[in-house]
Amino acid sequence: MLEFLKSKKRTHYANKISKKNVNDRVTLMGWVHRRRDLGSLIFIDLRDVTGKIQIVFHPESQKIHTKAGKLRNEFVIAVTGRVILREQANINPDIATGEVEVEADELLLLNTSEPLPVQINENILAEEDLRLKYRYLDLRREKMKNLILLRHDIVFAIREFLIKQDFYEIETPMLMKSTPEGARDFLVPSRVHSGKFFALPQSPQIYKQLLMVSGFDRYFQIARCFRDEDLRADRQPEFTQLDIEMSYITQNEIFNIIEDLFGYIFKKVIASDLPTPFPRITYKDAMTRYGTDKPDTRFDMELNNLSEILADSEFKVFNTALENNGSIRCIIAEGCSNYSRKQIDSLIERAKHVGGKGLAYTKYEGDEFQSGISKFLSAEEKLAIIKKTGLKNNDLLLFAADNDKIVFKVLAEIRNYLGAELQLYDPDQFNFIWVTDFPLFAFNDEEKRWETAHHMFTLPKEEHLNYFETGKYEKIEGELYDLVCNGLELSSGSIRCHRLDIQKKIFDVLEFTDAELEEKFGFFLNALKYGTPPHGGIAPGIDRIVMLMSKAQSIRDVIAFPKTLQATDLMSSSPAEVSKEQLDELGIKILPKQHKSE
Fold first, then answer.
1. What is the separation, in whole angstroms, between the first and last Cα of the chain?
2. Radius of gyration of the chain (CA)
3. Which of 114, 278, 288, 581 has a C-alpha 20 to 30 A away from that of 448?
4. What is the pTM of this model?
5. Helix/strand/coil for 51
């Protein structure tokens, strides 16, 4: 028969009990993790949010001994008893409470449990979709529980550090105006104003800048953000970022504060000392050396530009790439000349998966180029490649030839794959790096127009302002910066455009009409007229920080209730249809989905 707590109160959590509590009378509450019935003695491992402790029921207390015999895994109980030392032979070194146990004299059965559709046992994991459907059970697993508690510790440390640095925590609206910030907005229809919509914030970008206009000087927020975009292992439709903005600040000062913040978090939460200052690399150097603006610098294998050496190559693929203003670049997998054709074909398929046409290769063994494209290389080209790359015997050369965008994407993918496959780095190492000097604009070849590379509220470098007048927009760099660790982009930031005249130049390049500006940004541009101070900020992703520090394989593991890669919540079966009455109230009619060909 189920019982109620009534006046019963918990005195301790499981992991708070130790040898110093011997002979104390305690009351514990939690789940039955495991029951062992030895006939005369019954042992229960009681589990709560802190851990597990062993409870022993003696036959002398016949009433609760009989009740304990009916307990099953995941039943909810309250136990009162005396803390005693375990016998030396029975000490369990695998749990924090392994030296003690509780001799029970009271037992309340608070609830029962049906057999679980997913097991709490770490060694018997169900498929991820089933675990997401029963996420509340999956979160009972020690690994998942620890990830969520680690997230709590990280956020607490963030708040602790920033408040000591004179930052103010201020909330910004969740219902705002839809503005073009890169990804699709999630729209929220207004019942009161029929036919009009709010948007959920992609970030608090405009509002945090308005807080600088308001004079708050140092702002932060643990902000919920929403982007309706395609998902991947490190991306969710709703996510959390640490939003930071400061007035009268320089890029160097922001770097110093963020380095101190991360140093504090890593030291306090996982006892890891981060070397500071973090190294810096320009966007241009990151792309040419690693093929990506989020390089994993724990290992070498940098890209080599062989375009000049192979300008007259007999290999048609190389010629075609150069004729189309592309490039020929390679990476060297040291000691991998023993790669089989099957292994190389796998690398070629990986290159195609990210948009490349394939990979060319050759091997260097016995002071000779062998197999692959070696027959197309002249003696002079071979010598030049050796000199340029530092090639050694038993190395494997992998080439990509195409436009730079594809070449970089392909070689970055292959480099990252080989770094993990060949175990070229220490998985316990954290290599932070600042990537700076990003281009402000990028040309959209399909739409034949300029777009912002990051976002449109960035201050251009002062020495590049004259390029607005000459139309050399590709040369304009912004006061933009990213924080990257182990190939994972943790944060983007910039010094903002606080001057209306410069902001208008940016909008002119983006071809906004006056009417569009008034409709989309009128309130913000109006604010820039009233003494806006210079300001800048950054927004580290909380989910990615937890993912990095915990070495989790997916961002879904560090979010309590995540969405799948199809942006669905399997637990609540959402998104879901709503009633016709709700739609009518909002003035919304659902039309059949149109295919692009229609």
1. 63
2. 30
3. 288
4. 0.93
5. strand
From the list 266, 571, 252, 290, the residue with the least C-alpha distance to 414 is 290
- Greatest pairwise CA separation for the chain in angstroms: 94
Whole-angstrom Cα distance, residue 489 to residue 540?
A: 9
Mean pLDDT calculated for residue range 172-186: 86
Distance, CA of 235 to CA of 499 (rounded, Å): 33
CA 145 to chain CA centroid, Å, is 18
Cis peptide before 540 (omega within 30 of 0): no
Check if the beta carbon of residue 209 is closer than 8 Å to that of residue 186: no
Contact call for residues 419 and 298 (beta carbons, < 8 A): yes
Q: What is the pLDDT of residues 533-560, one digit of tens each?
A: 999 999 999 999 999 999 998 999 999 9
The three-state secondary structure class of 345 is helix
| Residue 575: cis peptide before it, omega within 30 degrees of 0 | yes
Task: Give the whole-angstrom CA distance, residue 359 versus residue 411.
Answer: 9
Looking at 94-216, which runs of residues are DSSP E strands? 100-111, 168-169, 187-189, 197-199
Q: Are strands 360-365 and 304-305 parallel, antiparallel or unpaired?
A: unpaired
The DSSP secondary structure of 500-545, one letter per residue, reads HHHHHHHHHHTT--HHHHHHHHHHHHHHTTTTPPPEEEE--BHHHH
Backbone angles phi, psi at 466, to 5 degrees: -65, -20
3-state secondary structure of 317: helix
Count CB atoms within 10 A of the CB of residue 20. 8
Q: Tokens for 192, please give them.
A: 């009161």
Across 274-293, b (16+ Cβ under 10 Å) vs e yields: beeebeebebeebbbebbbb
Task: Note the pLDDT tens digit of each residue in 57-110.
Answer: 999 989 999 999 999 999 999 999 999 999 999 999 999 999 999 999 999 999
Evaluate whether 245 touches 215 at the Cβ level (below 8 Å).
Answer: no
User: Does residue 354 have a pLDDT over 60?
Assistant: yes
Q: Tokens at residue 3, please?
A: 């019982």
DSSP class of 596: T
State whether the Cα torsion 86-87-90-94 is positive or negative.
positive
When pLDDT is averaged across residues 459-485 and rounded to a whole number, the result is: 96
Residue 476: HSE in the Cβ half-sphere, 13 Å Cα cutoff: 28
Strand stretches in 384-425, DSSP E: 395-402
Separation of alpha carbons 237 and 547, rounded Å: 16
Q: How far apart are CA 39 and CA 36, in angstroms?
A: 9
Q: Is the pLDDT of residue 280 over 80?
A: yes
What are the Cα distances from residue 144, in Å, to 46, 138, 140, 297, 480?
A: 18, 7, 7, 29, 36
**Contact between 356 and 317 (Cβ < 8 Å):** no
Collapsed DSSP state (helix, strand, coil) of residue 305 = strand
Neighbours of 530 (CB within 10 A): 8
Residue written as tokens 């994991």? Answer: 125
